[in-house]
Design goal:
By secondary structure, the chain is mainly β. It has helices at 3-21, 76-79, and strands at residues 24-34, 40-47, 50-55, 59-69, 81-87, 90-96, 114-123, 127-134, 137-140, 146-152, 155-158, 163-168, 173-179, 183-188, 193-207, 212-226, 231-236, 242-247, 252-256, 262-268, 273-275, 280-286, 290-295, 300-306, 311-315. A hairpin with a 2-residue loop joins strand 5 (81-87) and strand 6 (90-96). It is elongated, with a radius of gyration of 25 Å.
Amino acid sequence: MTKTRFGTILLAVFFVASATFAQDDERRTSQSFDVGPDGEFSLSNISGDIHIEATSGDEITVEAVKRVHGRGNAHLLDEIQIDISHMGNRVRVETRYPHGRSHHRGHDHGNGGVSVEYRVRVPAGTEVEVGSISGNVFVTGVEGETRVHSVSGEVQVADTPNLVRAESVSGDVEVQRVRSEDDLEIASVSGEVTLTDVQAEELDVSSVSGDVRMDDVACEEGEFDSVSGNISYTGRIAKGGHYEFKSHSGDVIITIDDDIGFELEASTFSGEIESTFAMRVSSGGVHGSEINAVIGDGSAMIEITTFSGDITLRTH
């Protein structure tokens, strides 16, 4: 046997063995529940992504895929429990793991990692509360009050007008096309936060170690924070509104229309302040990296503080 042929055989054996070792076992289930047009739905997962989307009709449909990674672990499919309770217009789903099995093994493909992926369709008016310990969460089109949380995973929410809260401990948070008449809280500890085409009565947006980016945003009151990231705000402010921007080691960039006047209090310890607005310097004036000024009628209030970043204000 030639060396080339022998090497080809060894390579083929290696790939077959690898495929066998990496084989995943899975089990799919699907259930539907009649809840009416404005039901309530909650889901608590341990490991695995969650997809929730609004649909027509009066039913909540829950599709779940249990997965066990690694050879010889198919028996764990019977041990992972999906508890579903249905009472009136309320549906509650909870993933339960075998006693003593840590959810942190959910991504351990070679050692019996276990996960459950959910795809859920709800009537548009359903109130939704959903969370995952280790997994991404996606919500689209829900019109009822919505709360979304992940400990270790990304959170993406779109076309959800009554979003109340979207947060992740270790992951990015992205919110798009939201029109809320209430308060809205968006947060991440160690990820970026991105808002696009978002309106709310009051906005509270923060990240500890990531950038905060807002584009086409409007609110009457806003509090925007990042410890070690930049903050950028492009959008509108309201007459009489109050806006507070804080970053310890990042830049703050604000781009707004010039049709609403505002009072400005801005300070940076080791950065610079730049503005394209015509302003009247009030008492205290400009002192190095601190400025107090009035733009237009001064009806709104903007406060900006950063320790080691630059501050930039500019018109559209």
